[in-house]
Amino acid sequence: MRVPALGMVLVPKAVRDYAAELPHPTGLVGCRATGEMSHTCCEYDIAVFGQGENRLEKVDGHVVELVHISRPRDHLVALKGMSIIRDSKEFYVSSALNGITEEKFKRALFASGRKALVSSLFCQQRFKLSREKQQPATGAMWLKMASYHLVAGTLAVFGARPMPLHELAQARQADLPADAADGVQVALECIGIERATRPAIARSTEAMLELKSKDYDRELVRAKIEHLLEKSMLADCYYYAGRVAAENLASRNDAFFRRYSKLVQLAMDLSGDEQQLEKLQKSLSLAAKRGLKTDATTTATFF
Ligand SMILES: [Zn+2]
Known about the structure:
The chain is an alpha+beta fold. It has helices at 13-20, 31-34, 76-79, 93-98, 102-132, 136-157, 167-173, 178-191, 198-211, 218-230, 234-249, 254-259, 261-268, 274-292; strands spanning 5-6, 9-10, 26-29, 44-48, 55-59, 62-68, 83-86. It binds zinc ion.
């Protein structure tokens, strides 16, 4: 199969032809556009500049995700480094992309990191509230959510664009200052990476896929988990399954957590050591506050 290059990025011809024939300007974004960390299970993320429903398509055996974008300036972080597939005279994707300077991208990425750290503190507040209300399981869920926000936020504040499937690898490879690296370590302890066994992953994946029963990307998530299991990347797989569950649960309410507490507990693989969680929360809180004090001018973009 001929694999034409888009700049430095390799895209299967069928995917490129498909994206070029869509009725709007298009470009390749996501991990495939950066070209370095992708696994064979990773989809080709196509930014489509126009209205429409986001969806998955199978093109010549490749999975393509269409992500519709109507206001590119709201998506500076995702669009930086995009490889244009189809431009248009009316829209001029290329000139919009040229407008995303290194400086603007750094500022937007830094701001997104701070936002994630604030979300981490918010989830930690919910952890404390749940404990006051004698709902320790819900509390443990909030602490795990806080931990995922902390990892993503720390990466972004220090110049790396977080990519869910690759986030654990990114966190391990990132050249972080000692304080920030310690914070990430605490978050990974809260998440429970050391519990990444095949039975634990199987249990949490089944529950997580039940939570995602109405989502269009459910089968893609399942395929990614199967791929990581095949490659015996158990820690990455455990981290990813929990992260997808956390993202899904972030949009639910207390009534849902009460009604489906068992499902939540399974999906997030929650542990019950309350004293340990309390101790970890204190360290996590310090890490988030330290991250928020980071000065934008001292951080470098390394991805
Ligand atoms: Zn990927």
